[in-house]
Amino acid sequence: MSERVYLSAPHMSERERELLIDAFDSNWVAPIGPHVDAFETEFASVVGAKHAVATSSGTAALHVALRILGVQHGDDVLVSTFTFVASANSICYQLANPVFIDSERETWNMDPQLLEKELKRSHRVGKLPKAIMVVDMNGQCANYQSILQLARMYDVPVIEDAAEALGATYQCRPAGSFGDISCFSFNGNKIITTSGGGMLTCNSEAWAQRAKYLITQARQPAPHYEHTEVGYNYRMSNLLAAVGRGQLSVLPNRVGRRRAIFKRYQDELADLPGISFMPEPENCESTRWLTSILVNPDIFGADREAIRLKLESLNIESRPLWKPMHLQPAFAKYRSVTNGVSEILFRDGLSLPSGSAMSEKDQASVIACIRSLRASTISRVHKPKVPASPREADLAIG
Ligand SMILES: *Cc1c(COP(=O)(O)O)cnc(C)c1O
């Protein structure tokens, strides 16, 4: 069998090795050091933030963001339901209640109309949420024009979960510049990686200081280590920051490659009936971190699971879109404000191999596999176990 084609494999350039060896040789093999400081400075400038604080993961950055905003036991935090579990988990670490908000069709991100509905309701009952966590799915920014207007109107701070969106822009501003606090991930499958790591960005010097304090066990400046509150060991290692600096220096190249991969899939698959692509609104430039398609089995002749299994049989990894958090057993007890969109995305959506290091030949195999499945138009249609909602071929606009 040929070598496995991964959904989004790490992609190193030469510079990472040099920087890593420099960190190693200088004996800064610690969760602080000159590469951490330099990575933070360079990162802040790339995303247009005044301050950046490197963390051990994106999840850790989200958790600390919630701490900084004072989220605690019993508070409500509004969050996109269509996301990776880390967004919701971080809220539960604070014993706060996630309230899941469904997606809009245009961006697949948090629907401003549902957000407004929930803010109105919470205002009426006299318990506004402590924060709104907006996720930039698949490398595409949410509709910040509407979302930030609502957040300001109700005076609720925004955490931008930009873990998947480093390098994207919205109205010519970089992803990560929309939240009062924004969070990024350098996990192995993200657009750039440090093997594991994250970043918190903000414009407040006081918040950045507080983040650094919380991620180093909340240590007061006393030689005997005085502690007045609970902290975490969430600091990034100097070795990994060295890798991050190398990766950051090739970010535009990585974004360009992911977008080219998306374009090729679109050029070579868009003629297939029943296949549509994640839309990209006019004022948005997505990184196309993952190329995601929607499959209408009634028209295509096979569903997304049949495509996934066919690809798997050729040792090619693909993945259904996120199962919405409001359908996850772990979060069943929390409120949700839904419109059916994320359930359709989960039922019909599939992400195709999109790593920037993927070869032209491997992408050709993915395309050929999907085309051949359409050609054979077998109807072993397997129904995903999701509550039924009307099938809408026009979910993807554009
Ligand atoms: C990857 C990811 C995270 C978590 O990042 P880690 O570095 O893996 O902890 C959070 N939110 C979203 C949307 C992600 O995709």
Annotation keywords:
four-stranded antiparallel sheet, binds pyridoxal-5'-phosphate, Aspartate Aminotransferase, domain 1, eight-stranded mixed sheet, EC 2.6.1.102, Aspartate Aminotransferase, domain 2, alpha/beta, single chain, 398 residues, aminotransferase, transferase
Helix and strand layout, with pairings?
Blueprint: H1 14-25, H2 34-47, E1 51-55, H3 58-68, E2 76-80, H4 85-93, E3 97-101, H5 112-124, E4 131-135, H6 144-154, E5 158-161, E6 169-170, E7 173-174, E8 181-185, E9 198-202, H7 205-214, H8 238-249, H9 251-269, E10 275-277, E11 284-285, E12 291-295, H10 297-300, H11 304-313, E13 319-320, E14 336-337, H12 341-348, E15 349-352, H13 360-376
Parallel strand pairs: 2-3, 2-4, 3-14, 4-5, 5-8
Antiparallel strand pairs: 1-9, 6-7, 6-11, 8-9, 10-12, 12-15, 13-15
Helix pairs in contact: 1-8, 2-8, 3-4, 5-6, 9-13
The structure holds pyridoxal-5'-phosphate.
Pyridoxal-5'-phosphate is lined by residues 57-59, 83-84, 86-87, 135, 161, 163-164, 185, 187, 198.
Brief description of this entry?
The chain has 398 residues and is α/β, with parallel strands linked by helices.
H-E string: HHEHEHEHEHEEEEEHHHEEEHHEEHEH
How many structural domains?
A: 2
**CATH class membership of the largest domain:** Alpha Beta
CATH superfamily of the largest domain: Type I PLP-dependent aspartate aminotransferase-like (Major domain)
According to DSSP, the number of beta strands is 15
Helix/strand-derived class? alpha/beta
Strand content: 5-15%
- In the predicted model, the low-confidence regions spanning at least 5 consecutive residues are 378-385
* CATH topology term of the largest domain: Aspartate Aminotransferase, domain 2
Number of helices: 13
From the alpha carbons, calculate the radius of gyration and give it in angstroms: 21 Å
Bound molecules: pyridoxal-5'-phosphate
Mean pLDDT, all residues: 93
Helix content: 25-40%
Largest sheet: 8 strands, mixed
If classified by CATH, what would the architecture of the largest domain be? 3-Layer(aba) Sandwich
> If strands are numbered along the chain, what order do they take across the biggest sheet?
1-9-8-5-4-2-3-14
Instruction: Characterize the overall form.
Output: globular
Distance between the termini: 38 Å
